[in-house]
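Notes for week 9. Today we move from apo structures to complexes. The key idea is that a small molecule is not decoration. When we ask for a structure prediction with coenzyme A present, the ligand SMILES becomes part of the input, just like the chain. The input block below holds both the sequence and the ligand string. Read it once before you look at the output, and try to guess where the molecule might sit.
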Amino acid sequence: MAISILPFDIDSASREDFTEHHELALAAFAVDRPDAPLIDFETFVGRLRAIPPGVAGQRIWTAHDEGRLVGSVVVQLPRLENTRAAVVDIRVQPAMRRHGIGTKLLQVGTEGLREAGRDIVVGRGITAGGDGEGWANRLGFATVQKIVLQTLQVAESDYTRWEIAPPRGYLLVQWKGTAPDDLVESYAGARNSIRDAPAGESGYQHPVWTVERVRHAEDDARNRGVEHRVSVIVHQESKAVVALTVLEAFPHLRTTAFQQDTVVVPGHRGRGLGRCVKSAMMRWLTAERPEIGLVVTNTAADNNFMIQVNHDVGYLTRRTMLTVEADLTDLESRWADGRAYR
Ligand SMILES: CC(C)(COP(=O)(O)OP(=O)(O)OC[C@H]1O[C@@H](n2cnc3c(N)ncnc32)[C@H](O)[C@@H]1OP(=O)(O)O)[C@@H](O)C(=O)NCCC(=O)NCCS
């Protein structure tokens, strides 16, 4: 077996290139995510192109055995926050595993990271108990957080669950793209309560939300063609945003949306505002974007309240996934002394 690793340019890739990537993903997902619905070609390519918020860009390398695609690594460099981290996503064709390809992809993917100011390597979405966990342990990664993946299939949902009015004294407000000037300051303040969510041992840093940071995130979404929807609950007496949820839909991904941060600020918890604001988001989304059939969200595995709220809204828990972290220095020493390949 002669494995070659090559850079992959998403902008100049042909349909045949994407088809090969899609086939690799289908083969890998059948083993790693057997619970997940099969991902169609358009959705797959859309996901590859959908660079998440707060990421400057991504680099991809592919592994080939006699010209055949057998693996890939996607490396993303967060900006503004988490600027010491590089997030890697490695995939190897199941029939080609345990031949050192995943490790080689990691080594190539981490080259040059130090020069880019990165010294922490993060892996996300690794199926607990799967090949990725064994591999990450072997390479010295530490599991820093357990996450549950929850998905809502719109076609299977009972829309009446979402008919929840805000309690007396609270008002629902929704916007796409730009927060209204009279709410943006308290919206920014409320978003900072996301820090109360359990974070495990993860070094992940949430943004410090200010009006400026909110406007920056809105511009960022607009520039990337991302539809950025926000539903909030305003406490009428104080005129403050006290609950919020954010949902994003990417331009190349017509049928999937991502439920992002949801927050209820302290002092207003326990009044059903989380369920209310998420239900409002689903009413709004299904009315305006009927083609979206799947909504995906990630929640810390020990965040029982949020998991329960999601169940109430119609999300099902699909699987537990791990976030792992390693010091770049430690990985480099493994490449240097050959430990990674023994
Ligand atoms: C994780 C993954 C990329 C590893 O690819 P790979 O090419 O099989 O990995 P390697 O051959 O480089 O494995 C190196 C060592 O890791 C360990 N390892 C790999 N898979 C393992 C498993 N399933 N169980 C236990 N240890 C494992 C072994 O020690 C292996 O060396 P050995 O085969 O000589 O014993 C591949 O399993 C995969 O695509 N998984 C699904 C996606 C994923 O979880 N990616 C995580 C990275 S972000």
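The first strand starts at residue 3 and ends at 8.
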